[in-house]
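Researcher: Next entry in the queue.
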Amino acid sequence: MCCESKRRFLLLYATQKGQAKAIAEEIWQQAGAHGFEADMHCISEMDKYNLETEKDPVVIVISTTGTGDPPDSARKFVKKIQDKTLPPDHFAHLQYGLLGLGDSEYMFFCNGGRTVDRRLQELGAQHFYDTGLADDCVGLELVVDPWIDGLWLALKEALPLQNEKEDMNSAVNPVSSSLSVAPHAVHELKLSSEVQNLKLEDEGARDSDTLSQKLDDINLVAPARDTKPSLVHSVPPVSQSALNIPALPPEYIEVEFQDSQGENPHLSSLISEGTTFEVPVTKAVQLTREDAIKTALLLELDIADTAFEYQPGDAFCVICPNNISEVEELLHLLGLSEKGDDFICVKIKQGTKKKGASRPQHIPEKSTLKFILTWCLEIRAIPKKAFLRALVECTSDVGEKRRLQELCSRQGAADYTRFIRDSNVCLLDLLHAFPSCKPSLSLLIEHLPKLQARSYSVSSSNLYQPGRLCFVFNVVEFPAGPSRPVSRRGVCTGWLAELVAPLLHPSKNSLDTKGESSLIEKISIFPRPNNAFHLPADPSVPFIMVGPGTGISPFIGFLQHRQKLREKHTDWEFGETWLFFGCRHQDRDYLFKQLQCFLENGTLTHLKVCFSRDSSTTEVAPPKYVQDVLRLCAKEVAGVLLKERGYFYVCGDKKHMADDVSDAIVDILSMEMEADKLEAMKVLAMLRETKRYLQDVWS
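Model: Structure for this entry, 699 residues:
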């Protein structure tokens, strides 16, 4: 089909970390084979499209960030369509399909997509294709792949037919209306030539025989002695299947090594979120005992000479590097150990077939190779299937090549989830597992995402500690496993722990830094204000805080702030404050024993603690978890929420705590209201809607 006969649709994406853009690019790439031309733009580029006059179907791919917010790139668009003066038929002419990305580990799943979808409907726009909501918790591809498969027939039905004789071999049934589309809900995509999945337009039938491997090749992947699948071995039926694998992403980056020298860019140039501040770490305290299961550290930053502002409950981001030993290891595997300090120039490859190809914003045009691998690329990122597909072309061993094809194929979806996604496998692990895989530097720049700054909750108050900002974190540990031969620490927490090691005082209670100025390290941070997770505006309103483990962090700031307000405004009325805290062992990881001081001076009215791993000799075993303690205080908790119109704050791990706390509140409301659970759930939903039940959680 010639270019002029292809039917156009508008393709918009709104991305925070690059996933929505990558999916939009996959749609753009597939469009041509189905007789369409996708006019693709970031949703922020409102000068390049106009929904008010758009006549063709619109496809939107949008992620969710923060506590259910649209990504930063969509803020201007969302603000525009939320204009209350717009008439209900403003978009009556518009046909659209929307794919939302989210993570069900978080409360407001796919809320970025839902917000846009709901508002477009309110303004009269019509679906030409059912909305898909993909869950990163279980694997985006479980919804994304079938949603894209069904898109083409939906587009053909939405657009007037221009060629009645068009080949319909590649058509699939549209995805049924559902919040989460199961793979079996869609017919398998059948191209007129299966080889088209592999074929490069400019390289003929390169690797066109890899879809149907000979048995000899399969045996190289899965010898008879290997009865169980692993990262490097497959078993039937996958090992004997013809494979549907993604099209090869077009190359678009070119790297040139420079003879000239220069300076690496400042870290602030890598951040698009706003002003960055380089601040000294003035104090580091280990809050847990050496024999605690997790190591928790408190760091204090000096922000006195900066314009950095925050409220208790806010978060901020730390710009962190990759582990230097991992960078050196990667350079070695790439055969570039001697070139780490050489300057490179990153350009767009001439003649690339990638639409709108541009140098990624997080990649400087000129810097040292080591700078890019240390500060710019997330080398720990779990490889996407498109990356695996590209790595196939860099792999010489036929058995390794076949296994990489399996891992990025439809037939190998379960293996991908088990051995790559759930095992947190990264590029280094893959290069060790598949030693004949030798990717180019340009390929890494094309496929590795931006190294994201890490977000932490503020654990202090500027009233209580002027010019200081504190935060608390556990040093994350990733144990070795079958797919990962070595243990690793978290990218940021491991770096911070190493950075402040000289500051850690043996007593772990206090620190005198006099005469130790040479030890003071600086880190770069930028603010990430929280729009809702703040103290009630009315100090007379009571509130409840639930924060086990490091989830207590923002509540230390709350209590410090409240103490200073009480000291300054003796004539104010202050509501009751409740804190529910839990940890494993009272003597090992009770992070802030000074909570007793807040209790004694009246800042904290009620302190409830529990210890999940401590043994008890009492006849009635004490409660182990915060949700158990909440149930013991059911009458009081319900009174705060229902009678006194108080606030409820939860901070910490979502999967293993926040959901259980939510369930406990439903039980408490049901019991105290003498109503069924459905009614209690409606009340909880109302509390969330009115911002009186607030969460700051992570997975």
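Model: The chain has 19 helices and 22 strands.
Researcher: Noted, moving on.
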